[in-house]
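Posting for a labmate who doesn't have an account.
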Amino acid sequence: MEIWINPACSKCRSAIDLLDGEGATYTVRRYLEDVPEPDEIRAVLARLGLEPWDITRTQEAVAKELGMKDWPRDEASRDRWVEALAAHPKLIQRPIITADDGTAVVARSEEAVRDALSR
């Protein structure tokens, strides 16, 4: 299991606390420092069963500067979104936990973290 975090994020810290409390074995990826490549983002999206716009923090300043709120959300635009996430990792919703069964969850709630632990 791997968890993508921003240490400054309270949801990330809560997820780590819960994983530790449950004695989970996991690897931490500080994705702002260890930025995922576009192919890694695509792989995580496949595991999540989501599209890139589903995990984009569109309220971030850089998203507003890029005008992402108005970008098309279709297959033809998918790569544009993925490239933006790779270029600006702060836009990636967090935390993301890749579960041992090959799936992943956006673990913003205790329930989502527990879901990842049960996989």
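Reply:
Got it, the structure tokens are right above this. Strands lie at 2-5, 27-30, 96-98, 104-106.
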